[in-house]
Amino acid sequence: MSARRPAPGPVGPPEDGAAIDGRAITARPDGTSRRRLLQGLGAGALGLAALPLAGCALDGALADGGGSGGAGDDLELSFLISNLDGGWVPSKSAISSYEANVWQQLTDKLVHTDPEGAVTPWIATHWEQNEEATEYVLHLREGVTFSDGTPLDAEAVLANLEAWAVGRPDEGLARVGLFPGGTYEGAEALDPLTVRVTFTAPTLSFLPTLGYHGCQLMAPSSLALSLEEQADLASQIGSGPFVLESWEPRQRVRLVRREDYDWAPEALGASGPAQLAAITFTVLPDDTLRASAARAGQTDLSYNVNPQVLDAFTEAGFVIEVPRYLGFVHGYSLRTQVAPFDDVRVRQAVTRGIDRAEILRTVFTDAWQPATSWLQAGVPETTDLTELFSYDPELAATLLDEAGWTGRNEDGFREKDGVELGFTIYPTPYLTGSVPEAELISQHLGRLGIRVRTQKLDIPTWTERVTNDPEQGVGEVTRSFVDVGTVAGVITDEGEDWFQTGSSDAELVRLRDEVAGAATREERAPLVEELSRHVLEQAYFIPLEQNVQRIYVQSPELTGITFNAVAIPSYHAARKEPS
User: Considering only CA atoms, which of 462, 472, 426 is closest in space to residue 18?
Assistant: First the structure.
């Protein structure tokens, strides 16, 4: 969302043998598979010496502006990323862990929300809230402009609030999913720099959610564009410390410093224009090549390399950032209207049949920690509910027997009334390690007699096959939020209806409403625990591990990088020592 620079820039499980990385993979009940579980990790477990040099593929990716370059005040940051496939329509890509790295440099927010959930001023310098948490008055910083010169004033904030809370769904422009739109009543400008926002019920989540990366401030002219026009990054106008110089779809984005920027929040650690002259985000899909580029000093930063190589990078003097964010743990949401998850005993059996300790030992490193609930441990209201989903294969087998899955077919998998017990997992493309983790889970559940197929997809196909397909029973979750009150907005039919319960679960509806309607955090905390307990007892959600969705391998020459509540970096105050 920056001003354009003068330089232009260009349903049920599939048949047995579904492909992953071009090879068939199905776990057998005896725990074997058609290929070794971690074959895909390649050189990862062997350390940096085993990594190949990036070669021609990297040379091509870094051509035309992808290198480090620069000297003195002209120092630039090169950033290798696995994809930028989510698109640039903000309402569609606002929660993408890839594009968000770019948006954070192009845009500002009304407030800054830090990794502990603390809210501090940004474009809003101060605010008032009534006792019922139904009315907020925001006071805006004077002199802020979007990069096309238009003012970031009360009228601009009103346009953004309307986009976040309501959107234009008839035109395909969705509202921001975690903005508290369900209770949003409206907003008005009290004067050119003051906005009053009102809600129909207590909405504690409003202020911290203004720091969520979906709530990025855009010029009204950008918000008024059609869905097709918004897909062009060059049409997105923001007020951030960098502006767009050029971009090539799904290949490269180049940003340059905005010289008149002077309204960074104190939390970012610097004022005035950015220290870096430019940032180039270059797409290089291969995990090993991104790691190789970092090893060879061909990039300043590689995003989401294989977790197995991180210790070797640390030993070699690199800086490894694996920021945890506020939100949900990594896990699976189950759609209860899709067989076999329409039976709570099957959902509970799958939950109890996964050996999470083996996943942490095999797939990840010491930087990953076990889940203790369906919410990240950093969420203040999280309590330890591990006993509700801990590994217990004997209990899992008993539950499957009780559910009637007692027969066995010729392949050794459970069946009932001639139907095999099984489903497909499509590993999320947003999380490094998701593929080997899914394959290991396939082995765990295969030992119980459940056939679990896994198939790797790219982002557009994954979105179509998983997010947008109500017949896909398993949805992999890597989702952030900045305030637990917004959880209520995704779990029933008043939101995203993750579990396909609609309003049929009266207890879930009650807890949803009471969490969302709490007027104080003291009132809300025990309700969140009650909600979490109910979700886990019903096995609507299967926790796996604490979510580390973003892995940054950084040159030791980089300093001054900060992260927000959802683990997105800001490079406004970043410095780079000249080489």
Answer: 426
- Kindly give the interhelix angle for 521-537 and 506-517, rounded to the nearest 10 degrees: 160
- The answer to pTM > 0.90 is no
**Residue recorded with tokens 């508290």:** 180
Q: What is the DSSP letter of 330?
A: E
What is the biggest distance separating any 2 CA atoms in the chain, rounded to whole angstroms?
74
- Model confidence band, residue 550 (pLDDT cutoffs 50, 70, 90): confident
450: which residues sit within 8 A by CB, 6+ positions away?
Answer: 349, 350, 353, 400, 413, 414, 421, 422, 423
Structure tokens that stand for 302 in this block:
């590689």
At position 443, the amino acid (one-letter code) is: Q
Dihedral class, residue 417 (left if φ above 0, else alpha if ψ from -120 to 50, else beta): left
From-to residues of CATH 3.40.190.10 in the chain: 70-322+551-576
- What's the CATH number for 70-322+551-576? 3.40.190.10
Give residues with Cβ within 8 angstroms of 144, minimum separation 6: 108, 123, 151, 152, 239, 263
- Residue pair 306/432 in contact (Cβ under 8 Å)? The answer is yes
- Angle, helices 344-352/393-402, rounded to nearest 10 degrees: 160
**Is 360:370 a contact under the CB 8 Å cutoff?**
yes
Q: What distances in angstroms separate CA 161 from CA 92, 154, 184, 204, one per listed residue?
A: 16, 10, 9, 16
Q: Name the average pLDDT for the chain.
A: 87
- pLDDT(569) > 50: yes
Mind giving me the DSSP string for 72-89? GGG-EEEEEES---S-S-
Q: How confident is the model at residue 48 (pLDDT cuts 50, 70, 90)?
A: low
CA distance 354 to 358: 9
Vertex 568, ends 96 and 185: CA angle to 5°? 70
- Written out in words, the top-level CATH class of the domain with range 330-546 is alpha beta
Give pLDDT tens digits for 387-407.
999 999 999 999 999 999 999
Element (H, E) at 23: strand 23-24
| Two structure tokens written together for 188 | 């008005």
Instruction: List CB contacts of 303: < 8 A, sequence separation 6 or more.
Output: 79, 80, 81, 82, 98, 101, 290, 550, 551, 552, 553
Which residues, including other chains, have CB under 8 Å from residue 212's CB and lie 6 or more apart?
113, 176, 178, 179, 480, 481, 482, 565, 566
Q: Which residues contact 361 (CB under 8 A, 6 or more apart)?
A: none
Beta bridge partners of 561: none
Beta strands in 82-210 (DSSP E): 111-113, 119-121, 124-129, 135-140, 184-191, 194-199
All residues at 6 or more sequence positions from 203 whose CB lies less than 8 Å from its CB, including other chains: 133, 134, 180, 183, 184, 485, 516
